[in-house]
Amino acid sequence: MNKVKLPSRKIQQTPRLLMADAYTICSEEFQSEGAKQKSTYYITYRKDLHTVNPTVFDNDDNRMISMGLARILEELFYDPITHAEIDETKQFLANFKATTTGLKKFEFPEALWRRVVDEFNGRPPIKIEAIPEGAVVYPNEPIVQITSMEEGFGEMAAYFESKILQMWAMSERTTVARHWFQKLKERAQRVSPHLTEDEVDFLVSVSLHDFGDRAGICEEESQKMGLSHLFVFNGTDTVTAAYQAYLLNNKQPTGAASVFALAHRIVQPWENEQDCYINLYEKGGFGDLLSMVADCYKYKRAVKDYLLPLAIKSAKNNEGKIVVARPDSGNALEQVLWTIELAVENGLYTQIGDFKYPTTLKLIEGDGMTFEVMNEIYDVLEAKGFSPLDWCPFGVGGGLRNFLKRDDFSAKYALCAKENDEGVIKLSEVEGKATLPGPFKVLRSERALNEKVTIVKPDEYPDEENALKVFFNGSNIYEPFGEIMDDDFMTIKNRVMKDFDNMPKNITRGEERFPASESILQQRRDLIKKHLG
Q: Which end of the chain is flanked by fewer CB atoms within 10 Å, N or C?
């Protein structure tokens, strides 16, 4: 019997013990005894948003969205760590330390990891508390707090720093999307005051379509970054992300959707380009949006001679089909204006107030779009009396992910306390990189937001709820994950959309960078004096 011949596997599962920076893996060897006994760390985003992209972020608006932690924790700790993983780690690290006399054994806390397997069901005894996913956070606030829960496991709280910190990517992508949504909503309300708020929200939700699957670096990025988009917008071609949203929503619809669309490779084999468009049109039903890429040969000829007649046919016969022209090269603003003016010349529009709206011919622009270019096009359309979002949604691929980088949020994983909860700080030649002494409680009460004091010590304001919720606690060996890990897609999406509206734009206090209690700030001053004299 013949067997399928396959090459040796190139993709192997990495032991969780090796999913860390090298200097973290070996740090048990030279950490202080106090920090080894117990340590508390926190994650914070430190950058003022207007310095990242002034087109997207207003000068006085620092609302960030916390996102991405739950998926990271599931990847790290859902399955218990095993002795086999420890053995594999030990074998790999046997020749990992570079020295002047050759490769040698690279130390790692093997004994601690053996205890993790034997005493804690394979999950490290650390507690990870965080702001719920989709909720608003502000610069310099602790959005995640990681605490070692058993004596001698202090370094475990630092072990997965590099992986947990990667939540910055989903946070930034969701934050940018939510701010852009807000700008589009304000534009739609200005142009179309006759629409209800729900109608405006729907219009905006389909105005930015994710073309990003092919622009991503890998499948994991398509899932995570594409999912971030769907917490705000509904339109997507990144099907893997839409499926993840569907799973996260208990296999219930989420609103994520796409349309029939042509690619250049579909147009090319047809003997006559027009026949390709007619074929797609005939495949469509009443209410369908039919996206027809029209620049395979000559954009203006295709739109005027082939697409326009189909749009006129749909209008004349009340067939309910929307022909969507898609330019994919050339001057975007010029093509958008030309297409809209062609539709208007042929009566394919309605007038409401001061603005013209499309009927059966519109377009989607998707060639190298950035937020700056999209904003410019919308400004011109609005000035010329065309309702921007109705005529021209945008399809964006690389433009939704090429800007992402950790420096944008200045994401930091910092030690804030050691044994006996003694606070520590990091100073720097750059003031913006300094940290606070912990541990912390984060508040979201009306009083805290009004007074702009949201970071307090755990024993302060005992009547006010801690906004940091338990996502993971490995010392609770039979129930290591918190209830918040069961938040479904729509719970998180509703938080993204509604929490943003209900939170202040900023909680900065004049020259004070940290929205912290006086006791924390005084402790920080004392530590500065201790270390700097």
A: N
Q: Is the dihedral of CA 202, 321, 333, 384 positive or negative?
A: negative
Token pair for 264: 């250049």
Q: What is the DSSP string of 369-408?
A: --HHHHHHHHHHHHHTTB-HHHH--EEESGGGTTT--HHH
- At 243, list the tokens: 């499926």
Provide φ and ψ at 46, rounded to 5°.
-115, -5
DSSP-derived secondary structure letter, 81: P
Output the CA–CA distances (angstroms, integers) from residue 105 to 17, 89, 102, 110, in the order listed: 16, 11, 10, 13
CB 95 within 8 A of CB 28: no
What is the percentage of the chain residues whose pLDDT exceeds 70?
Answer: 100
What contacts 472, CB < 8 A, 6 or more positions away?
73, 77, 123, 126, 127, 128, 480, 481, 482, 485
Cα 357 from Cα 338, distance rounded (Å): 15
> pLDDT averaged over the chain?
96
Biggest distance spanned by C-alpha atoms of the chain: 84
| pTM reported for the whole predicted model | 0.96
Residue 410 DSSP label: T
pLDDT tops 90 at residue 429: no
**How, if at all, do strands 361-363 and 322-326 pair?**
parallel
DSSP state of 235: B
